[in-house]
Amino acid sequence: MAMWLRLGAVSAALAFGALASTVFAQAPAAAGNAARGKVLSQTCLGCHGIDTYRNAYPNYEVPRLWGQSPDYIVSALKEYRTGTERTFVTMHAQASSLSDQDMEDIAAYFGGHPLSRAAQPTSAPKPPAAAAVCVACHGADGIGVAPMYPDLAGQHPDYIVQALKEYQDGERTNPIMVGMGRTVTEQNMWVIAEYYASLKPALKTLPRADFFFTARR
């Protein structure tokens, strides 16, 4: 019985990865101007440039963006701009003022120093059972297996949990993640989040140099 359960889990992960690849196969590659993105990102850094800065309600740490996949950043910004795939009001207001080129430039800046598997420690932890399906897209190391998948290594755990809850509640509508969210208990959300948050190399908060409250860890 245990063997069949293991085989079932492997099959589910493979099927999940294949379906995700089909859904996102047409996603365009981000091709932005990082120098221009650095200027445009100053508004972003009002929240994302302060380590431990928290969204007031619901209460969670805003995500780290330095090292994130540019393709994923562009995709997320476009979803915030439409206001249908992601319904967060503050980000909708910010993204509504951005052109496609603005988004690609911002993404090129934040994603200009991508996470590298070569920098991983030799004794990386093994993924918990709760994350068995996550690794099909986000990798066992928290680095997405394709550019359109977000890197999770070093991300704030409460942000990961918040994102999963939003997929579960329909506030985010990506079909792959909505299906995932429906199957994950809150306890397992925290198991997944704490695991990915612990991994190195990790996403970071890029400090806004001229911002009084900026703090670098």
In short:
With 217 residues, the protein is an all-alpha fold. It has a single domain (43-197), classed as Cytochrome Bc1 Complex, Chain D, domain 2 (Orthogonal Bundle).
Helix-strand blueprint:
Layout: H1 2-23, H2 34-40, H3 45-48, E1 54-55, E2 60-61, H4 70-82, H5 89-96, H6 100-110, H7 135-138, H8 157-169, H9 175-181, H10 186-197
Antiparallel strand pairs: 1-2
Helix pairs in contact: 2-6, 4-5, 4-6, 8-9, 8-10
Average residue-wise pLDDT:
86
Number of domains: 1
CATH top level label: Mainly Alpha
The CATH topology assignment is Cytochrome Bc1 Complex, Chain D, domain 2
**Helix and strand sequence:** HHHEEHHHHHHH
Instruction: Compute the number of helices.
Output: 10
Distance between the termini: 47 Å
Largest sheet: 2 strands, antiparallel
The helix fraction, in percent, is 40-55%
What is the CATH superfamily label?
A: Cytochrome c-like domain
Q: Which regions have little confidence, pLDDT < 50, spanning 5+ residues?
A: 1-28, 211-217
Shape: globular
- Judged by helices, strands and strand pairing, the structural class is mainly alpha
Q: Rg from C-alpha positions?
A: 17 Å
Q: Provide the spatial order of strands within the biggest beta sheet.
A: 1-2
Question: How much of the polypeptide forms β-strand, as a percent range?
Answer: under 5%
- Report the oligomer: single chain
Give the tally of β-strands: 2
CATH architecture: Orthogonal Bundle
